[in-house]
Design goal:
By secondary structure, the chain is an alpha+beta fold. It has helices at about 35-45, 55-60, 145-155, 160-165, 170-180, 185-205, 210-215, 255-265, 280; strands at about 1-5, 10-20, 20-30, 65, 70-75, 80-85, 95-100, 105, 115-120, 135, 140, 220-225, 285-289. It folds into 2 domains: about 1-110 and about 280-289, no CATH class; about 115-265, Tetracycline Repressor, domain 2 (Orthogonal Bundle), CATH 1.10.357.
Amino acid sequence: MEIKYYQYRIGTAKLIAGEMHASLHQVDFDKNLNYTSFGRQIIICITTDKCSKLISKHIQRGINIGDHKHTRLIAAPDFPIKSFEPGYFNSESIEFGLSGGDICTYQPNLLLEYYYYFWETKHPFSQWHKCKFEIDNKIFTSAEQYMMYGKAMLFSDIKSAEKILKTNNVREQKHLGRLVKGFDNEIWQLNAPTIVYNGNKEKFIQNKEFLNLLLSTKGQTIVEASPDDNIWGIGLAKDQEESKSIFTWKGTNWLGIVLTELREELLGNKFDNGYLTLDEFKSKMINCW
C-alpha cells in the first residue's frame, strides 16, 4: 500500500503485524520527500512533536493509505508515528500503530487536494489587508497588527505591544515586531500559527464580506502564492508552474493552512480527514470495521 498526503504518494506502508483490535504498519518515506519544503514539513509533523498543533492537525488531515482500489482513512492515528529498533516486530523502519476500528475503506483516491490561491495586500486574505476588528476591547486595523501584537505579548514585551497598537502603518507594525525583546524563534514557531488563527477568526467573524469569501473556498486548500515568503506562503507566484504541486513549492504555506483550518471551524466541519463532512464520507464508504 502507498502512504499518501491527499493524492500525493509520500512512501509505502506495509502491514507487518496485526491483532483483533490493532495493527502495525512499516512506513518508508520516499527519499526525495526530504528535499522539498512541504515534504520536510509533512515528515516533521507526523513523526515528531516539533510542529505547532494547528499545522500538524492540517497535515494529518491529508494522510491516508491506499492503492488503485481503496482509500483507507486513518480516523484516530497515533501521531507522532513511532520509530522502533530493527527487529521489533521484524521492522526495519518507522511503524504506524493503528486501531483496527479506526481504519475505514473508501473509494480509490478519495482524498484529492485542490487549491485556492491568493496574494497581495488588496486581497482580503492578506495579513496586511486594511480592516477593523476588536479583541479584548482593543481595535486592530489588520491581521498583521494583531500578529505583531501577539508576538510582543508572547514574549512579555509590553512596551513593544503598546507601540504596535498605536500605529496603523502595517510596515511599521512589522518593523516593531522584529524588535521584540526576548524573542525565541523556536517558541515563536510553535505559537505563531495559533496567534494568527485567533486574529483572523475575529477578522472574518466581524467582517461579513470577508467571511462569505472565506466560506466560498469550501473544499479547497487556501494557498498564499507569495514569491517573497517561504514560511507563511509557498515562495512562488500563482502563475509559476511549480505552484501547482506541493512537491515543487518553495515554502510551507502557514497562512494558507491557518485560513483553511479556520474555514473548516466556521463551517462546523468536525471530521478530521480532508474537507468533506462525515456524511459525505459515509456516502463513499466501501467497508468499515
